[in-house]
Amino acid sequence: SLSPGLKEVVESCRGKNLFFSTDIDSAIRDADLVFISVNTPTKTYGMGKGRAADLKYIEACARRIVEVSNGYKIVTEKSTVPVRAAESIRRIFDSNTKPNLNLQVLSNPEFLAEGTAVRDLKEPDRVLIGGDETAEGQRAIRALCDVYERWVPKARIITTNTWSSELSKLAANAFLAQRISSINSISALCESTGADVEEVALAIGMDQRIGSKFLKASVGFGGSCFQKDVLNLVYLCEALNLPEVASYWQQVIDMNEYQRRRFACRIIDCLFNTVTGKKIALLGFSFKKDTGDTRESSSIYISKYLMDEGAKLHIYDPKVLKEQIILDLSQPHISEDPHRVSELVTVSVDPYQACQGAHALVVCTEWDMFKELDYEMIYDHMLKPAFLFDGRRLLDQLHPRLQNIGFQIETIGKKVTTSRIPYTPTAGVPRISINPEPPTKKTKV
Q1: The dihedral of CA 282, 398, 220, 222: what is its sign?
Q2: How far apart are CA 198 and CA 218, in angstroms?
Q3: Residue 88: closest CA among 51, 63, 52
Q4: I need a labelling partner for 435 at 20 to 30 A (CA). Which of 151, 202, 285, 298 fits?
Q5: Which residues are catalytic, by number?
Q6: Sign of CA pseudo-dihedral 376, 378, 381, 387
């Protein structure tokens, strides 16, 4: 695993109070507490395609649990699920019950982030447990609270009804995604006015009512949760006949797509409005640093836009395998012709190979190692003018040195380039025209 600290935890506990088994039925029968932690992907077909959560794995788990269980057990949904999923699990249990079987259903959503999962579990901001308001439901909640209280302060353990717990997880991810889209919308304005989005983020983040977290402008958010959960929230609102609420949250996704498209257009425009046949180096393919996860990575979509224009991409990521990169870029919604991917995409073994003979270098993931590269050597082996597009504001501290080397720098939310090449966005990416001096008011005499 790439999650820091996980290996050490497993090694210290395995064989003591941590065991792994492929005998699922026996594990269920022997357990007092069962966590359902299966994937809940977005549906790829039928009603709600592309937005609704596919709960087939949740249902399969519920049916297997009720089939092999006996006695009293607490079944806890850990997966991110739409509101009232616990009710569906309970209906399956009630419809297949048998003598002496008592299954209680709880909601206990996880709030872990990839790359910091162990730390987030050991020192959580909060633990959320939802259950029935019946005596049996409260008994189950108390039992799970007792487990968490071994290391989590009681003040950080929140108990709610099941529906509030389920909705809180979706809402939390939606709010985090909203923060990113909000600052990204400001980054577009900054690039058109001469403001610096980092300075703006600092200024507004120091307001304690707003806070500074998740105000980092970038090429867009990715990962397995944000887009999936926001779209699930949108679908839920539409299903409940709340179109205005659905439209509000849809804008979070629309802004993320706009930011990706706008960044790709900026690359194309700066490269003399054509990238056909040009080598472009992409540094980073995972959706964020310290993980090999590429799900919904912005790098995939930047690659798509550039491949659509015929660019030759040389991609380097320290953790993502070549097979995964090719698989991601060969998906039908990314490339209609998998053979074209093999023609246009090369996965490089190191960043220097990726940049050799490139017209542009594009930073898509904020891996720390990219701050330590020998940019003098990279510049010497690139075609001139050598462009550097920083999609993560990773190299801000290096800008003076990079400019002295000779790079033409383009970064999110700031005008940095020393290039004289004008930036004219392509059609479909509007730009606000600002008149720095208001017209002189004529006075009648």
Answers
A1: positive
A2: 11
A3: 63
A4: 202
A5: 225
A6: negative
What residue ranges in 330-445 does DSSP mark as E strands? 345-347, 360-363, 387-390, 408-411
Which pLDDT score is estimated for 416? 58
- How far apart CA 177 and CA 226 sit, in angstroms, is 6
Please report, for residues 20, 111, 261, 310, 351, the alpha-carbon distance to residue 428 in angstroms, rounded to integers and kept in the order given: 53, 37, 9, 19, 32
Summarize pLDDT for 375-388 with one digit per residue, the tens.
999 999 999 999 99
43 in Cβ contact with 50 (< 8 Å): yes
pLDDT at 431: 40
Sequence ranges of the binding site for NAD(+) = 38-42, 79-80, 114, 225-228, 295
DSSP 175-231: HHHHHHHHHHHHHHHHHHHT--HHHHHHHHHTSTTT-STT----S---SSSHHHHHH
β-bridge partners, 103: 73
In 3-state terms the chain splits into helix, strand, coil percentages (rounded to 5) of 45, 15, 45
Give pLDDT tens digits for 130-148.
999 999 999 999 999 999 9
End-to-end CA distance of the chain: 79
What is the residue-wise DSSP string for 69-109? --EEEEEEE-S---TTHHHHHHHHHHHT--TTEEEEEEE--
Q: Strand order of the sheet with strand 279-283?
A: 345-347, 312-316, 279-283, 360-363, 387-390, 408-411
CA separation for the pair 51, 30 (Å, rounded): 37
pLDDT for 84 equals 84
Residue 93 predicted with pLDDT over 80: yes
Residue identified by tokens 């629309």 is 254
Distance CA 319, CA 284 (A): 9
Q: Which residues carry a binding-site annotation for substrate? A: 110-114, 169-173, 209, 216-222, 287-288, 392
Cα–Cα distances in Å, from 385 out to 24, 268, 357, 419, 442?
60, 14, 11, 9, 47
pLDDT at 426 over 60: no
